[in-house]
Design a protein that fits this description.
The chain is built from 9 helices and 9 strands. The protein has 221 residues and is of the alpha/beta class. A hairpin with a 5-residue loop joins strand 6 (136-138) and strand 7 (144-145). Helix 6 crosses helix 7. The two termini are 18 Å apart.
Length: 221
């Protein structure tokens, strides 16, 4: 867990490759459900209909999608992975108290509390905005390409050769909204974890990806 740009996506990807776990990117799962949505298309959860184009609009504006819908999509995918016996690395999920209350007991039931590790990456707001407005993703595999002198002139992903793109979420104005959402709706999860005896271990995010990765591995060991 951590604010936008804290490196949670990059670190989740590294861990998934190192430990052979499934890299669970909630935003990707959400996007897959509304990317090609047509007018009037919806998903029904417990008798309530959730308009996919409305959810797509929220996502594009940096506002968290409706927790009930997100939770439903996430739990369906977790169920599928658990049935296959796969370990999971989550990137920034759960995102709200509602999602936490629904998802954490579900994970506990399927995997056991002793097998759940929570790592909170801390990063100053200024650094978060800079990183997000300067990073790009490859259009094929969504590899995040962090900004540096070595990468600033790249137009193609060095890993798969696809075109590098800027996400609609990564403008300065959208970032301010996303950080507000994170502080008001995601950070309160840390107190929820404590109440439910899940321990979130804090780690400093303002270091190189390699240093951060090594610190995370120490926690997991």
């Amino acid at each position: 867990m951590g604010p936008p740009g804290s490196g949670k996506g990059t670190q989740s990807q590294l861990l998934s490759e190192k430990l052979n776990f499934y890299y669970f990117e909630t935003s990707k799962i959400i996007e897959q459900n509304f990317n090609n949505a047509k007018e009037g298309e919806f998903i029904e959860v417990d008798g309530e209909k959730y308009d996919l184009l409305h959810e797509k609009k929220l996502f594009a504006e940096g506002i968290l999608c409706t927790p009930v819908l997100v939770t439903y999509l996430v739990k369906e995918k977790i169920k599928e992975l658990a049935k296959e016996g796969k370990g999971i690395v989550f990137s920034g999920s759960p995102r709200t108290i509602y999602e936490g209350e629904q998802i954490m007991p579900f994970l506990d039931e399927l995997y056991g509390k002793e097998n759940i590790e929570i790592i909170l990456i801390k990063l100053p707001e200024k650094e978060s905005i800079f990183r997000n407005t300067h990073r790009r993703f490859c259009s094929l595999m969504r590899h995040p390409i962090l900004y540096s002198k070595e990468t600033e002139k790249l137009t193609r992903c060095p890993l798969d050769g696809s075109e590098l793109v800027v996400r609609i979420l990564d403008t300065t104005e959208t970032m301010k909204i996303r950080l507000k959402e994170y502080k008001e709706r995601t950070l309160p999860l840390i107190d929820y974890f404590k109440r439910e005896n899940f321990i979130a271990k804090e780690i400093e995010g303002k270091q190189t990806p390699e240093e951060l990765h090594n610190d995370i591995l120490k926690i997991l060991q």
